[in-house]
Amino acid sequence: MEEEKKGKGLFEGKRLCLTLVCGAIGILLIILGSSGFFDSKDEVKTETEGKDTVFSYTEFLEKKVAGMVSRLCGGEVSVLITLDCSSESVYAGNISESQGYLQSGEKTSSVSEREYLILNRENSEEGLFLKEIYPKIRGIAVVCPGGENSSTQLEVIKLLSVAFGISASRVCVSGIG
User: 39 partner at 20 to 30 Å CA-CA among 92, 108, 145, 157?
Assistant: First the structure.
């Protein structure tokens, strides 16, 4: 009987030690994971490149708009363009859909699966990139000479509405000063 108790005590001590070691390893993994230790450099680079692309796109549009409005109004023009979201990358793939039906013929559920076309390149796999969809313009703010004049405002709003296919309510024009 005493030998059984000795065995249990020894087993419980090992269990406690194993539990403490597993807990310490778990805490270490949580700390390393939250610090970005396990992040892939490629993923971070791609995310940064995506932000740079949207920033460059916005900057390009602002310069183009400033040039057009400057030719229309003359003088120095400031432009701010806001976008709906970031850009979207489209990859080649197949979409398969399946639907479930009851015996009565009623549709119960539908499931769609997407399979992407993967290319193997020098020890890495990547999807077949088709295109990048740039974000839609949410609004445009323009500060220009004569922007306080309603006829100038109307001309600038018409110009930008037609150029970008957005409603007039998404364009604001103000005068300098």
Answer: 92
